[in-house]
Amino acid sequence: MQNKLLVLGSLGLIFILYIVATFFYKSEQKSEQAVISLNKSELFVRDYSYKMGDNQKNITVVEFLDPECESCAIYSEVVKKLYKEYYKDIQIVVRYLDNHKNSKLTIQMLEAARVQGKYEEVLNMMFTKHSLWASHYSSIDKPELLWGFLEDISGLDIEKLKIDMNNPKIDEIIAQDRADATALGVTGTPTLFVNGVMLNELSKQALFDLVEKEIYK
């Protein structure tokens, strides 16, 4: 009888230890997953990243772009339409990937214009006039024209912009964005993600479908 009680007691103790070990194992797994998720989210959006939209439905559209990129200029019309239609629901986050000769110059202009609240005006100017200063189809390489185009932006202090372009933090932004792009497997622009899902087809329909899937799910 004593042996039977001893066996039952041992089995009971083993069962309790199993339950406790399972609990701590699952807790540890959840903690690790949370850390991975947190780290992953940082790859998409940094504190310094330029953001647009009210984001009432917690939908983040991240675009890795290059102001000198021909495809970015063309696809910017699609992104603008998306923003116009869904700015209340979404947040568009701009990240950089400097793949061209004058990319750094244009990013410096953008970040310096941001100090004066003129970021979107300057980015729009670079894309709408892209064929004049950086058309890769026509082998045009005239970044000096940008200075003249900047003069058409109301309220932009170009002398201050030239000073702010030398801020060393801009180099840090370019380097961090490139590191994040590499970690995410991004090599070309434009590359877009909607709540962490990469857009596989660069079309208006594909982008709207992906965003609307998140809005109406």
From TrEMBL:
Keywords: Membrane, Transmembrane, Transmembrane helix. Pfam families: Thioredoxin_4. InterPro entries: Thioredoxin-like_fold (IPR012336), Thioredoxin-like_sf (IPR036249). Residues 52-205 form the Thioredoxin-like fold domain. It comes from the Bacteria. The keyword rRNA-binding does not apply. The chain crosses the membrane at residues 6-25. Belongs to the thioredoxin family. DsbA subfamily. This is Disulfide bond formation protein DsbA.
